[in-house]
Fold this sequence. Notes:
Structural class: alpha/beta
Number of strands: 15
Number of domains: 2
Mean pLDDT: 91
CATH architecture of the largest domain: 3-Layer(aba) Sandwich
Amino acid sequence: MRTNSTRRLIAAAVTVCAMAVGTTACGSSEPSADGSPDDVAAALEKGGKVTVWAWEPTLKKAAEEFEEKHPKVDIELVNAGTGDKQYTALQNAISAGSGAPDVAQVEYYALGQFAIGENVENLAGYGAADHAKKFTNGPWNAVKYDKAVYALPMDSGPMALFYNKKVFDKHRIEVPTTWDEYVEAARKLHKADPKVFITNDTGDAGATTSLIWQAGGRPYKSEGTDVDIDFRDAGSKKYTSTWQKLLDDDLLAPVSSWSDEWYKGLADGSIATLSIGAWMPANFASGVASASGDWRVAPLPQWTKGDKSSAENGGSSLAVPKGAKNKALAYAFIEYATTGAGAAARVADGAFPATRADLESQEFQKKEFPYFGGQQANRIFADSARNVGTGWSYLPYQVYANSIFNDTAGKAYVSSKPLAEALKSWQDASVKYGTEQGFTVNK
């Protein structure tokens, strides 16, 4: 799942971006791709140890099966912290020139920050590019740049609307199919019971960019060290004008996601919906067990009636960091864990797939979720994955940008500052930082 970025990563971010301006990866030349499929075959024959830094639990199953298939290989899984904690440790190891793992889990929004400084390997030479058609568009576009492939997608987060059917039925609320209907549902719910909110939001960079993505907004564009940031495009305006109505009418619960209060709100029905990635069901089952049977899944509301657009929210890749001791063997494990039998094993163990074959399998789509009243929710998630909008990109320093969201765009949630104006503040701060780090940033 996506984790909140914090200021602990800023120092690492500065290092990555400062390194970036002096590397060929940031210019017009194509970053080199080491190795070949023959190297991978030879590495598997020789065997050895592969150290993997990751927090994703289903990798344990993939590692066990990989070791059974290749007895000479030892996969050591290390939880170096989730998200920003691991990225800080990883950047420190890369900068020091020692201690880096052979494989690292990196979320899609953070991958560009490591790739631009050539702090992760281009895996195209090993055969990574041959897997392009195996993955859905959102995850694949997040790991490749022109002919370079910096990781392989491990999972994905196509968005859906999770809603409390018990609360909706009680207040005779129809499941919204558009965001305009969503606003009206928010008003009806809150009028019927002032303790009930359509959702919570205290300002979240990931949720904001995902909904802008779904609305057709493409505020970020980058090529090497040339970056454009513009939150004035049509998609961004659709998002801000709609969300501003929710803010103006105090229809958003002032509760931070992943807090104890948030889990309580999901359990007692005072938070009635979540627009979030398809990895969320396991969190419902473990963190909101008392509400089992109350919740259901529906397609994400649309910005234009009749559309089927979606976006990604979260998801991770597996990359080979600079300084890895056994790159070819590391790639062999990455390939296994993200494609074919390895990916299928992880999906069976609870991971949400990024692979088309797993998303389209009848076994996957027919799975019934007791938590959601026996609903075959994967059908909705798979349809969402097929309709993720193309052309989205993150900043090459998105980790830093997300870390300053609450100090800039977040002002709209705690003051009378309009959301569009607050997003402009986020844009200006991101432009300033990028310029200071040597990027050419236009706005």
